[in-house]
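Appendix B. Extra example for self-study. Work through it before the problem class; the solution is given directly after the inputs so you can check yourself.
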Amino acid sequence: MKTYTRPADIENESMRIISAELKERGIEIPGNFEAVVKRVIHATADFEFAKTLTFVCGKCMDLHQKTIITDTNMALSGISKPSLQKLGCEAFCFMADPGVAAAAKENGTTRAVAAMEYAAERYPGAVFAVGNAPTALFKLAELMECGLRPALVIAVPVGFVNVVEGKEEILRACRKYEVPAIVARGRKGGSTVAAAILNALLYEAAGMLAPESRGW
Amino acid sequence: MKTYTRPADIENESMRIISAELKERGIEIPGNFEAVVKRVIHATADFEFAKTLTFVCGKCMDLHQKTIITDTNMALSGISKPSLQKLGCEAFCFMADPGVAAAAKENGTTRAVAAMEYAAERYPGAVFAVGNAPTALFKLAELMECGLRPALVIAVPVGFVNVVEGKEEILRACRKYEVPAIVARGRKGGSTVAAAILNALLYEAAGMLAPESRGW
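Solution. Structure tokens for the complete assembly:
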């Protein structure tokens, strides 16, 4: 066994293996989606994402100066901080905000829904990355019917209840209003997938090739 | 479509679906491992983990009063904080520790290796949960040869380089020294899997059924 210890070497060798295995499986990814798809496979070792990841308006995904909203602190903590800084981005998760918890209780809804409303009011042109809560997707689709136009929606919750439906709903809304979106159709996804997609876009925008903040 | 909005209802319905689909696939999970396996499937929607999750000394996994070390801040942030508090546990990730970064640079190794050494010195009887860095597993196996006896090793990195080998190495060491372990053999795993395993054990020890902190 060859031992790799430098993060950049591990990264390069992983990407080489992923490219080779995609080819073996006869899967071709269009160039503009390649970085995202490969980084999701890198984060999951699951080639199914090459089939389920669905893109709407793939051209407008430059994250310079964007505000990023996540639905979990876990996804937030997985985002590359040096890239955010380099691009002048900021990133928030409002799930633990006391005002959000109170609003959820008052309206008899989930904290994820309340957090999306809270974020949409303050940062209507943000990137919304949802890796956990399908209810957040239904709320975002509803807000889009009322005029919300996010810069990008990343819709990749994982699970068995309302997940497939929530993703189809947001896909429909994003197509209707030509809002850029990356959706992992089906049951699979999660906070690591949300973070991987964001990092792929951030690395690309920042011209960073290796995950300087991963620290294998 | 029936709409579930209460986290506990979503949780229960998800677990019901997972149980039914495990049965359909003819997979039986021994009772003492069931909570862990189901929560990992819940966190990934991937039934492959029912086959790859491997347990060493499954009886001694009560997490009361334990210190938990993770190899990523992402896994740390995915752990249920109310459960930790209820059980008198504490949890740390030393990846961002300046001393760890300096040690890694000085010794020409990864931050993950340096973080494990740092943690093993201070908390030799901790639960070590590795969801990202195979190099951390090689280091833990080496430290076990020198006498380290963790309370539990959770070995679930994801990836294409050194990952399969690192998991086999720690499995061998844990079997040799009868150290309890939960290993996701193969390529798959990740920070969400590490957090799901910890939460399954924490909920069980704390007598908590629903993930009060997930906030769907």
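Self-check: Chain B has ten helices and six strands. If your reasoning did not lead you there, revisit section 3.
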